[in-house]
Specification:
There is one protein chain. This protein is mainly alpha-helical. It folds into two domains: 1-51, Orthogonal Bundle (Arc Repressor Mutant, subunit A), CATH 1.10.10.60; 54-195, Tetracycline Repressor, domain 2. It starts with a helix and ends with a helix. It is 83% helix and 0% strand.
Length: 196
């Protein structure tokens, strides 16, 4: 059991350094040799944990998506009443913190790979399923409490995810903090108006 734990720690360290290389150089220029160099280890050590770059990329996508899930759960469960959770979730989803939680260039590079790689696509599907699974019971609690209209909670979850993804995708192209704050504020109020 201790060996597995040590391997998990080492894999996480490798993936964190892979993230640094991806931010700086993109997927097209990332290599096992570059990761090994910043870790000051022999490339064979990385190959011991990840047999191929493809295996490392698939593990990296799972690592990245897991970070999103953990962060969202931690912030969401802090609120007690359905109304507090409703506004807290919107604050999270339309915040600069959420946008900047991970480098959007890295996230969308992974997203692009999902269109060409079935295992990566499966990881993204799982991430969105987990995200939706977190939101559906919340939406039901908002409906039950009369906070939002009596809609299908799955549609509410889809709507929130789509609005959030659209904002982050568009903002990556626009890349201006003031514009993001303005767009996020408008979208958040539009979501509240549409749902309530």
């Amino acid at each position: 059991m201790g060996r597995k734990s040590k391997a998990d720690v080492r894999k996480k360290e490798i993936l964190e350094n892979f993230y640094i290389i991806l931010k700086e150089e993109g997927f097209e220029n990332a290599s096992i040799a570059k990761i090994a160099k910043i870790m000051d280890v022999n490339p064979s050590l990385l190959i011991h944990y990840f047999k191929t770059k493809e295996e490392m990329v698939v593990s990296f996508v799972s690592f990245l998506l897991g970070r999103y899930e953990i962060a969202f759960k931690e912030k969401m469960v802090g609120s007690q009443s359905p109304e507090d959770r409703f506004y807290n979730i919107l604050d999270i989803m339309f915040s600069e913190d959420w946008l900047n939680f991970s480098d959007q260039t890295v996230f969308y590079a992974c997203y692009y790979l999902s269109s060409r790689h079935e295992r990566i696509k499966e990881r993204f599907n799982l991430m969105y399923k987990l995200f939706k699974d977190l939101l559906v019971p919340q939406a039901q609690s908002w409906i039950d409490a009369g906070i939002i209209k009596n809609e299908d909670p799955e549609n509410v979850a889809d709507f929130l995810i789509i609005m959030n993804e659209g904002l982050t995708y568009y903002d990556k192209l626009m890349s201006d903090a003031d514009g993001f704050r303005k767009r996020a504020k408008f979208l958040k109020s539009a979501v509240i108006k549409a749902l309530t």
